[in-house]
């Protein structure tokens, strides 16, 4: 198993013992600093109130948006939608961070200095805390802009799902997925428990802790069975919904049920190791496939009493020591990498033990097909890269051959020459290609890492700086602001520019919205219209004055960095003409005139 997970068997066992020891000390970290690697165990909680700290009817899954101040990467880059996590577990992590944050930083720094790996681990409800701590450390490392590989690794055992698909998307985009390994036994109910809402599971979570005693018998077998059936029912809904999305099929019955049954937002993230009863291990990373396996492996075999499997599902949560002993001692490791080729029938014991019936295998194959489709789409996009670069080259030639004193933006806005018509054709061709790319990203039809690839970040920036100015020129040449409002108004600016701007800001860790060097012309146009309006109130005039100054400051910054071309400051441009209309007591006027003067002198 060592080669499949990138971690030694002995370390996995040590991590489990540390995670269990941490669970005995609520609120305290368990650190083994003398070993290599260093292992930090995070405590969980057996109290339902810590899982669902608020009104469970109003928020049945205890979800909350991630704090982007602490976790800036956990969002979609293009539209900025943040990931969702469990509020109760995140609150516990934040309390631990407030109390022991510096200790965690010191341990990570010490491990890096000593060339050691550091493992964050948690059993049961300690698992989500270890996950959040690992991502927090990875974020800290990213902010430091250090080039060496971060030494942080996460191992969980029987951890509930507490992160949504955007969380997983971000982890895979950043290349952090291999830093997370989760061990799950076939019957353990806890990894599935948050697929069901709080009102139906909260009270019965109290039963889980008592089953640490292997001889414990439930107080009410009926309630326990009902708990088990309810979790499995909700897991079925989530898995079926995901399967329909994968295959593109519509299930009328499920659509009707989904109006009455709320679906859990939580999804798997990272690499999963399913420990079977035979001792074999099944390793899986595809999140869609993991979700299906979490559901199907929980099904009871024919003639198995439901009450017995319900009791076994709680006992399994405390039986990871035996499960790990069997799995780590057995050389049988099944890595489900090529899911598309998974046979619909197989005599492999590990797959049979996980209840992989024909329906389950079809779902896993659909997950594999979806992954393959993303890779195929990536190849299609790569095939258009040369066309994109040739088209951008034509626009650069057009920019170089501009009219004297007018510049790129205004030459296109005037639209007086044949070259302007040709440039417009190229503009439309490029817009079509990039709109296709952005739509694929929206539909999650490209690999997650695409938006973080340096080649595409740079190409997207080049595209944005060349094409958006003439898109804006076209917008105002046709007076579209009269019907559609300002270009920068929500819904007017095309996503192809918002997404590519976001890529650069994320890659270079810049403030959101700071890379407006390609769209400043829209601000100039709107300010030009505003200052021409003689009916403005004193308050509006003061606001426009401040906006003009901010624009002037940004132009100075972009000009100094070479991010705005020199032709923007020629004397006959829209910018220069608007600048001349500003009152002499406006600081913005002198700042922009300084740029225009420097251009004349050069």
UniProtKB/TrEMBL annotation:
Gene3D superfamilies listed in its UniProt record: alpha/beta hydrolase
Keywords in alphabetical order: Coiled coil, Cytoplasm, Hydrolase, Nucleus, Plant defense
GO molecular function: hydrolase activity
EDS1 EP domain span: 394-584
Entry superkingdom: Eukaryota
Coiled coil: 371-401
GO BP term, example: lipid metabolic process
Subcellular location: Cytoplasm; Nucleus
Entry GO terms, CC: cytoplasm; nucleus
All residue ranges annotated as the Fungal lipase-type domain in the record: 70-194
Protein's name according to its UniProt entry: Protein EDS1L-like isoform X1
């Amino acid at each position: 198993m060592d080669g499949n997970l990138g971690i030694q068997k002995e370390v996995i066992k040590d991590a489990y013992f540390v995670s269990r020891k941490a669970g005995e000390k609520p609120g305290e970290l368990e650190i083994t600093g003398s070993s290599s690697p260093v292992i930090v165990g995070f405590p969980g909680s057996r109290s339902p109130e810590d899982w669902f700290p608020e009104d469970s009817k109003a928020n049945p899954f205890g979800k909350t948006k991630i704090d982007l101040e602490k976790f800036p990467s956990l969002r979609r880059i293009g539209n900025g939608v943040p990931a969702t996590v469990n509020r109760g577990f995140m609150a516990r992590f934040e309390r631990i961070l407030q109390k022991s944050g510096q200790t965690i930083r010191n341990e990570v720094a010490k491990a890096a200095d000593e060339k050691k790996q550091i493992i964050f681990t948690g059993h049961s409800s300690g698992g989500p805390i270890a996950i959040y701590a690992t991502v927090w450390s990875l974020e800290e490392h990213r902010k430091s802009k250090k080039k060496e590989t971060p030494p942080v690794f996460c191992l969980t055992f029987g951890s509930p799902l507490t992160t949504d698909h955007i969380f997983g998307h971000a982890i895979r985009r950043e290349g952090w997925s291999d830093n997370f390994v989760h061990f799950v036994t076939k019957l353990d109910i806890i990894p599935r428990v948050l697929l069901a809402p709080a009102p139906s599971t909260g009270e019965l979570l109290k039963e889980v802790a008592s089953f640490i005693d292997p001889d414990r018998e439930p107080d009410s077998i009926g309630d326990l069975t009902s708990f088990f059936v309810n979790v499995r029912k909700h897991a079925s809904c989530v898995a079926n919904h995901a399967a329909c999305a994968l295959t593109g099929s519509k299930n009328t019955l499920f659509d009707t049920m989904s109006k009455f049954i709320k679906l859990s937002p939580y999804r798997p993230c990272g690499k999963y190791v399913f420990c079977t009863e035979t001792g074999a291990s099944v390793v899986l990373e595809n999140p869609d496939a993991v979700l299906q396996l979490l559901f199907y492996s929980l099904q009871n075999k024919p003639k198995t009493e439901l009450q017995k499997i319900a009791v076994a599902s709680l006992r399994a949560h405390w039986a990871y020591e035996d499960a790990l002993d069997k799995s780590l001692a057995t050389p049988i490791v099944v890595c489900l990498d090529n899911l598309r080729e998974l046979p619909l029938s197989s005599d492999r014991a590990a797959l049979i033990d996980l209840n992989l019936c024909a329906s389950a295998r079809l779902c896993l194959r659909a997950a594999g097909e979806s992954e393959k489709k993303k890779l195929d789409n990536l190849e299609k996009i790569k095939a258009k890269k040369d066309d994109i670069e040739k088209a951008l080259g034509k626009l650069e030639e057009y920019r170089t051959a501009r009219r004297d004193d007018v510049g790129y933006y205004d030459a296109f806005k005037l639209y007086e020459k044949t070259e302007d018509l040709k440039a417009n054709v190229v503009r439309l061709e490029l817009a079509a290609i990039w709109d296709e790319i952005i739509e694929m990203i929206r539909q999650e039809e490209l690999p997650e890492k695409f938006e973080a690839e340096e080649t595409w970040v740079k190409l997207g920036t080049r595209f944005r700086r060349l094409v958006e100015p003439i898109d804006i020129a076209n917008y105002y040449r046709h007076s579209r602001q009269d019907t559609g409002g300002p270009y920068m108004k929500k819904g007017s600016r095309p996503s192809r520019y918002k997404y590519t701007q976001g890529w650069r800001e994320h890659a270079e860790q810049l403030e959101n919205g700071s890379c407006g060097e390609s769209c400043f012309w829209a601000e100039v146009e709107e300010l030009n219209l505003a200052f021409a309006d003689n009916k403005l109130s004193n308050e509006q005039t003061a606001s426009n004055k401040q906006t003009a100054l901010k624009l002037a400051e940004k132009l100075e910054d972009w000009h100094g960095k070479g991010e705005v071309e020199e032709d923007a400051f020629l004397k006959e441009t829209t910018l220069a003409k608007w600048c001349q209309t500003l009152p002499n007591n406006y600081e913005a006027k002198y700042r922009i005139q300084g740029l225009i003067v420097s251009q004349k002198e050069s």
